[in-house]
Amino acid sequence: MSVSRLSELRSRYGLGTRLMQVAVLGILLVGLHTRNVGVVVNAALALGTTVLPAVLERDYRIELDARFTLWITLAVFLHTLGMLWFYGEVWWYDRLTHTVSAAVVATLGYVVARAIDEHSAAVSLPDRFLFVYVLVFTLGLGVFWEILEFGTTLGASALGFEPVLTQYGLADTLGDLLFDTVGAVLAATVATERVADAVDTLRRRLDRHDGDDDSPLRSVAHERAGVVSLDAVVSHDRTNARRSWTVVGFLALVAVGGVLAGSILLATLVATVVALALVPPVAYRDRRATLPWELLLIAALPVFGDVFAQPWLAATPLIYVAVAAVALVVAVELHIFTTVRMPPTFAVLFVVVTTMAVAGVWAVGRWLVDLTLGTHFLLDPALTGDEIETRLMWEFVHAAAAGLFAGVLFEWRFRRG
Q1: Which of 179, 284, 269 is nearest to 233 (CA)?
Q2: Phi first, then psi: what are they for 225, rounded to 5°?
Q3: Claim: this prediction has a pTM higher than 0.70
């Protein structure tokens, strides 16, 4: 493509961006005129988002492709427009905005991760892993967005205000997460190839500030002094090995018992944890090469609660703490036994978003199975749609809280050594 043709296209993309900025400003004025708080807040945030690419380029020298800037502006414009009328009246409009927004979020996640990968020798994110990471990152933030909508709805109801963000029912919430996945897949397969300039400029900025200890991405991109590397998580200590094998043996018995009792789902989940625990001793050919017994115990807490009839151990928050522990095991084993390389802080961030993503996938999976097979994993006939949605939202809140708690716990453990 000639330079003149490229310049012409950039001008057109820039014109499209500016026109949508004017439209968002117009929607903001409409919201002020009608005193619609939801429209005003969303339009103001959207307008701020549309100028963010220019601020990044001016102040941080991070150049975004004009097409990507147009894409970001389109996403926030469609969302702001929906607040006027479309969300409540056009059934497919919310699906469109979530697909476009999820694609933008996925692309931003890709840009940051790829720039860190190219900048730091401590990080290696092969394309296959990066594809999965983009999906997990987007779904995790999708769950977080649903929590924000739920929280603002509760807060607005308690204070007697109109909610800034609105939920339109259980099908809307789960459909949003489903189309978040669609947007993430589109971005991971197509759009990521079109943001090479943004990746390159962010990587160069990281290179220039490599010695800056205050950089928010420094701890993510590098191993830090006094922090245990993921390589050291697998222990060769005899005492740890005895305790770890005790936990693994218990879980193996539970898996066998589940198969005999016909609880195939439980047996499969427990067997997955057992298989992950067996990877280090098999790979090292050393039965003392085991994961920390405390980590395996955390992953097994819901199983203990079920076997020993202690419901509090199988409560939703602890289930998701166990999910976070399994996510950390996966991160550690990817780091040690594959070409993936992650500093501890990156692994902790991966654990947090993975925990929330698992909650989203589990919710959508139960919903689709119930709709297809007539089961009642999620759609309990004894509850109303609003009651089911409220229960699901609290499950998401528990998943997010558990992920953050586990992240803080793991980060402290890495610092402590």
Answers
A1: 284
A2: -60, 135
A3: yes
